[in-house]
Specification:
- The chain is mainly beta.
- About 5% of the residues lie in helices and about 50% in strands.
- The chain has a 14-stranded antiparallel barrel.
């Protein structure tokens, strides 16, 4: 019995890395730019952008999944005739279960945004790279084993003879990723964008004492903001990610109402808005996103309604998510030589 259970645990740990492993992802994927695509570094209106994300999933279970992330990025050399650069740093951490299985990522991103508009400053093609470290850890102390069963419960005073066979409790590795991004703004009120990213292309070893390489992940994403009337805009978004056997697709849109329009005299720094709309993660969840922008600050919240086969196991509970963002402008001409207003 002990050997059978040990095999099951080992398979669960190893196969989750080989076949079931999946990166952290947010329902508000568009609000976590550097975990979506390294080429997003520096694409925004302003001198510095700071974002914090938090997600709590399946709160009805005893040890729910919690994910947090933070990023800081900024454009540099924006007065270059052919384009500009962007730099960024991001951090993310995911924890779950009685074993406190945790994955922590820290990465630096650099991107170059090439102006392909012929001097019109409204059409860009970007290439980005990301390098960092990934760490995984696990705590065996809260796990129970068959030799601890006394007929009515698990006796934690009994030392398990199986823990030592599980390998280490932490793993670290270098992680490399890349991506491309396309951005086009035919008018000040309309813009469209799309991109793809290729994460973990070096396949870092994240096994606990057993060589286990992280699966590569391909992500395709896109969206836009389209003026549909006085003070109104339509914002579609989508993302598709493939990582081994794991695949997900999110698609949705928001309607944006401008509480206060942008001012050309202050280089679009006074925008105030509210937006809301439905999204769907195919065969998994439906969710609503609401955003509020007040000049340099923006916040958004969402809640997933579970529509998958896990709905019964989680008592229908989905995932709550919140984002806080801030953009700093150090000068009246925030784009410093570029007429294009990034979002």
């Amino acid at each position: 019995m002990k050997n059978i259970k040990l095999i099951i645990v080992l398979l669960a740990l190893s196969s989750s890395s080989v076949f079931g492993q999946q990166d952290v992802h947010f329902s508000q994927f568009f609000s976590s730019p550097l975990t979506l695509n390294p080429a997003n570094a520096g694409i925004f209106d302003g001198d510095l952008r700071a974002i914090v994300n938090y997600r709590n999933q399946w709160s009805s279970i005893s040890k729910s999944y919690a994910t947090s992330a933070a990023s800081l990025d900024f454009p540099i050399l924006r007065e270059m005739g052919g384009g500009m650069f962007g730099l960024g740093v991001n951090f993310s951490k995911d924890g779950s279960g009685d074993s406190k299985l945790s994955t922590t990522n820290f990465a630096l991103s650099v991107a170059y945004h090439l102006d392909i508009s012929g001097g019109q400053n409204n059409h860009y093609l970007s290439l980005g790279f990301q390098a960092g470290a990934i760490q995984r850890s696990i705590n065996h102390s809260n796990l129970t084993w068959d030799n601890q069963w006394n007929g009515s419960g698990f006796d934690r005073q009994v030392q398990s003879t199986s823990v030592g066979d599980l390998g280490g409790t932490s793993a670290k590795a270098m992680d490399l990723s890349t991506g491309m991004h396309w951005y086009y703004a035919p008018t000040n009120e309309t813009r469209v964008f799309a991109g793809f990213s290729f994460f973990h292309f070096n396949r870092p070893d994240i096994g606990f004492g057993i060589e286990t390489h992280l699966l590569r992940k391909l992500t395709v994403h896109g969206g836009g903001e389209i003026n549909i009337g006085e003070g109104l805009a339509f914002m579609p978004n989508f993302v598709t990610a493939i990582q081994g056997s794991n695949k997900y697709t999110d698609v949705g849109a928001e309607f944006k109402y401008f509480i206060k329009e942008n001012s050309k005299f202050t280089n679009y720094s006074n925008e105030m808005f509210f937006s809301a709309g439905p999204y769907l993660r195919w065969n998994d969840a439906a969710y609503i996103v609401a955003r509020l922008g007040l000049k340099s600050f923006v916040t958004s919240i969402s809640y997933d309604f579970n529509i998958s086969k896990l709905a019964n196991a989680t008592s229908g509970a989905g995932g709550f998510e919140i984002m806080l963002g801030y953009k700093l402008n150090l000068s009246k001409t925030a784009t410093k030589g570029h007429k294009l207003r990034f979002k």
